[in-house]
Amino acid sequence: MCGRFSLTATPEDIEALFGVDDLDDFPPRYNIAPTQPILMIASAGRPEPGSNRPDRKTVLVRWGFIPSWAKDPKDLPLLINARAETAAEKNSFRGAMKRRRTLVPASGFYEWRRMEGRKSQPFWVPPAQGGVVAFGALMETWHAPDGSEIDTGAILTTAANAEIAPIHDRMPVVIEPGDWARWLDPLVDDARKVEDLLKPARAGFFRPVPVSDKVNKVANASPDVQHPVEGVDTPKPAKATGQGSLF
Questions:
Q1: Contact call for residues 200 and 158 (beta carbons, < 8 A)
Q2: Which of 57, 101, 210, 217 could lock 44 by a disulfide, CB 3.0 to 4.6 Å apart?
Q3: Which of 56, 50, 47 is nearest to 23 (CA)?
Q4: Within its chain, how far is the Cα of 237 from the centroid?
Q5: Residue-range domain boundaries for the chain
Q6: Are 135 and 2 in contact (CB under 8 A)?
């Protein structure tokens, strides 16, 4: 799953990377948690011929997807993740998979390894080459009974790749830059045409680093939550025994 992540890139870097021009200034965020606002890149619709308007926009949404049909969010579990394997079939996510696919820029994510007889060990998981990664995500606007609107979202997850499998059996879906346009295109409204993108990140893409349990508390949001700790080994990548072991 993906229950915490980080985004420390500058607004200028995000704008240049994703081809948007509407970002306000924001500070680096080292410990982003559910129900907090998260940044999403979404389709702005195809511009008119000759227009200089970007075809992408940024949206701040509540991390916790609320289906459009929900009468009261309090009656639902907190939907921070959507399983990539079943999202197109689930009533909660079906519409968003067709028309409201988005990207979540991240500098990396956190995952916890269950340790027998001990507290779970947190890991900071950035891209091995650094920079920003784009998680596949879904957005929905919920209309409250009082007429107000809340933009909400969930991050898609898939089976863990070799580096993440010894820590957790799930990981965020990573959409590669060459696939961003197809993933975001609202005219691609058949989820089967993007299902090939919903796969584990390629081997070696991430580099897990053991960190202290400071990250367990949402209030701890300074850079030191990503500092490596000594005395904890990073698990060796799992050995593939056939495609089924990873997918």
A1: yes
A2: 57
A3: 56
A4: 22
A5: 4-245
A6: yes
Homologous superfamily in CATH for domain 4-245: SOS response associated peptidase-like (3.90.1680.10)
Q: Which token pair is 33?
A: 């948690």
The 3-state secondary structure of 165-185 reads CCCCCEEECECCHHHHHHHHC
Instruction: Report the relative pairing of strands 209-210 and 118-125 from DSSP bridges.
Output: antiparallel
3 state SS of 54: coil
Catalytic-role residue among 111, 149, 176, 230: 111
Distance between CA atoms of 1 and 83, rounded to whole angstroms?
9
Exposure class string for 89-115: b at 16+ Cβ within 10 A, else e:
eeebbeebbbebbbbbbbbbbbbbbee
Q: Verify whether residue 149 is a known catalytic residue.
A: no
141-200 residue pLDDT tens: 999 888 899 999 999 999 999 999 999 999 999 999 999 999 999 899 899 999 999 999
Instruction: Report yes or no: 211 and 122 within 8 Å, Cβ to Cβ.
Output: yes
Q: Convert the pLDDT of each residue in 53-90 to its tens digit.
A: 678 999 999 999 999 999 988 889 999 999 999 999 99
Q: Are 235 and 113 in contact (CB under 8 A)?
A: yes
Rounded-to-integer distance, Cα 199 and Cα 125, Å = 17
Choose, from 2, 89, 116, 230, the residue flagged as catalytic. Answer: 2
